[in-house]
Amino acid sequence: MRTSLCDTFGIDYPIFAFTPSEHVAAAVSRAGGLGVLGCVRFNDTDELERTLTWLDDNTDGKPYGVDIVMPMKIPTEGTSADLSAYIPEDHKRFVDQTLLELGVPPLPEGEGREGVLGWLHSVARSHLDVALNHRPVLIANALGSPPVDVIEKAHEHGVKVAALAGAAKHALRHVENGVDIIVAQGYEAGGHTGEVASMVLTPDVVDAVGPDVPVLGAGGIGSGRQVAASLALGAQGVWTGSIWLGTEEYRNLASNRGWETAFLRATSSDTVRTRIYTGKPARLLKTRWTEAWASQDAPEPLPMPLQNLLVAEAHNRINASHDPDVISMPIGQVVGRMNAVRPVADVVASLVEEYDEAVARLETYRK
């Protein structure tokens, strides 16, 4: 399992792992892939500074990347307090009533009430500034192309830029803006995702951008067979996310005991694509929380970043309740394959072993 991207980034396997956990990211990099730390959870740049310093010190000198959330067009800015004035009272009442009906207890006074400011453009820029003072080899943007000046700044530091695309036309715009690597994110994926499945999207994007622009296949990848399929479709590597939520290292970040119960019992049919998490379409685990938002009396989700600010405290309360029937968490359809909690190194090893087995099996068909 070796492509030109392995030489580009100095990695053993073209396995790129998005994760909000620095422990998972470090473990993936140490195992030969490229761990990519999601920065959206960091409201405090000092905390991000400490986390990236930890990554510098705990990756055995291996490379890693960071993922930011930065729209190319700068939205109306402000603090979470300023923006909360744009949230309708009916939406606030619906959230409060839903939490009451679901039996989600309140948080202790003063705990966990601030929204995730990483969805704001200015905060994402501060994440980039902090990251470039460390040693990432890749900056990925979860919302497509970042502004051109951001791409140029990353290039000045010798850092490659990746951007997610849910359609071939989006991938072409990314390349025009100077993006180096396209992540073709299929419909099956967790989090923000488009409407085209990976089997169709990956070759569409590969053909659109041409042979000089590397493409990472994303969406529904949880086994070596799926890695082989993605490379067979023309990708030069894979972008993975959901499978790392089921690792022992992720427990260092996730304190929600109900989360493991929820994903271990889930099937590939137990997800839903909805705008209730951030205001943009994202795939989540299907629970009583997502069902409440699908009811006839539920309001329409607000645009980003207002929706995230609306539900931020609700998510904190839900997480603190440890109730697997209510949990709110982005995850892809590959959740149906997540049947055990394993160390990151074991997951990487199994991806490589299964890939080799799949390629060997295909070779037998040529005889």
Overview of the molecule:
- With 367 residues, the protein is of the alpha/beta class.
- The protein has a single domain (4-364), classed as TIM Barrel (Alpha-Beta Barrel), CATH 3.20.20.
- 41% of the residues lie in helices and 13% in strands.
- The chain is built from 14 helices and eleven strands.
- The chain has helices spanning 4-9, 22-30, 45-58, 80-83, 89-101, 121-131, 148-156, 168-177, 198-209, 224-232, 257-265, 288-293, 306-321, 344-364, and strands at 15-19, 34-38, 64-68, 138-141, 160-165, 181-185, 191-192, 215-218, 237-240, 271-274, 282-285.
- An eight-stranded parallel barrel has the order 1-2-3-4-5-6-8-9, surrounded by six helices. Strands 7-11-10 form a three-stranded antiparallel beta sheet, with no helix packed on it.
- Helix 2 packs parallel to helix 3 and helix 3 (45-58) runs parallel beside helix 6.
